[in-house]
Design brief:
Elements (H helix, E strand, L loop, with lengths): L2 E6 L8 E5 L4 E4 L1 E2 L3 H5 L11 E2 L2 H7 L4
């Protein structure tokens, strides 16, 4: 499956970064959420799910618009 890099707000070429998959889904590369208080507030979490912190600037600057 081919990915298209949408953009990043990183100066060092690491994360956070947004990618778009061929079928239109979005992949988010970012730092894993580890704050216990925040994690405790998440609902309906499946075993294979994880959570990443996405800076607002990344989403407003690079997220695809429909």
């Amino acid at each position: 499956m081919k990915l298209h890099k949408l953009g990043t707000t990183s100066n060092a070429g690491k994360c956070p970064t947004l990618y778009e998959m061929e079928r239109g889904d979005i992949i988010v590369q970012g730092y894993r959420l580890t704050d216990p208080e925040a994690l405790a507030q998440l609902e309906d979490v499946l075993p294979n799910e994880t959570f990443v912190v996405v800076p607002r600037e990344l989403m407003t600057r690079f997220a695809p618009k429909e």
